[in-house]
Amino acid sequence: MSKIVFGKKEINIVKTAYSLKRAVVLPTDTIYGITAPALDKKAVLNLYDLKGRNLEKPFIILISSLDDLLAFGVKLDNKKSDWLKKIWPQKITVTFPCNKKKFSYLHRGTGLLAFRIPDNKWLTQLIKIAGPIVAPSANTQGKVPAEIVREAYEYFGDSVTYLDGGKIKGKASTIVSLENNSFEIIRQGSYKLKKNEYFRSGSDN
Q: 8-74+92-170 falls under which CATH superfamily?
């Protein structure tokens, strides 16, 4: 688990920033992220502008529980639900099919949404209160992700709010796809998964 210690004061700072349509740079369970409410279309599109990000690349969505998936139209069968309960919270991002037009600003035409319950208690509590967030790395397109707040400030200046959690040098999350009944490791990251792990765990469900 992350050693970063924040409390209610910092949650209120984030909530206030979001209410003012300001993005917030904060420590995630992997690296510094620049964040916005995932269900606020304008706030998400603003992140694309701030980062200069390719509009065809979706953001990962951080959630606080499996129940949050319902807000995005993602329904789980028993096997998927049981497996996710075993692995989350963890630095594992999971993609699910989503072709709903109202979420096109999130899936960017890919028909997929990616989710993670972060391995950070404070961040999970923030999401419970503020709702699911998108949290791409705190850098502009093609630049190195910020490891300290000062580096993030050099990218975004006074246009966003910052929470300083000291130096963070993490590794990106592992990404897996759970489409239909398939299981595919898209990217091996900080948490190492085996190809047969999903089918081995919960195979009797």
A: DHBP synthase (3.90.870.10)
User: What backbone phi and psi angles, to 5 degrees, belong to 31?
Assistant: -145, 180
3-state secondary structure of 51: helix
Q: Which residue has 């980062």 as its token pair?
A: 51
- In Å, the largest CA–CA distance within the chain is 53
The two three-digit tokens of residue 174, written as one number: 């592992």
Q: How many beta carbons lie within 10 A of that of residue 170, not counting itself?
A: 18
Distance CA 43, CA 48 (A): 9
Structure tokens at 8: 């209610």
Per-residue pLDDT tens for 169-198? 888 899 999 887 788 888 988 888 877 776
- Helices (H) and strands (E) counted in the chain, each on its own, are 7, 9
Count of other CB atoms within 10 angstroms of residue 202:
16
Q: What global pTM score does this model have?
A: 0.92
- Whole-number Å distance between alpha carbons of 5 and 139: 23
Distance CA 93, CA 113 (A): 10
| Residue 60 near residue 132 (C-beta atoms within 8 A) | no
Residue 139, pLDDT score: 97
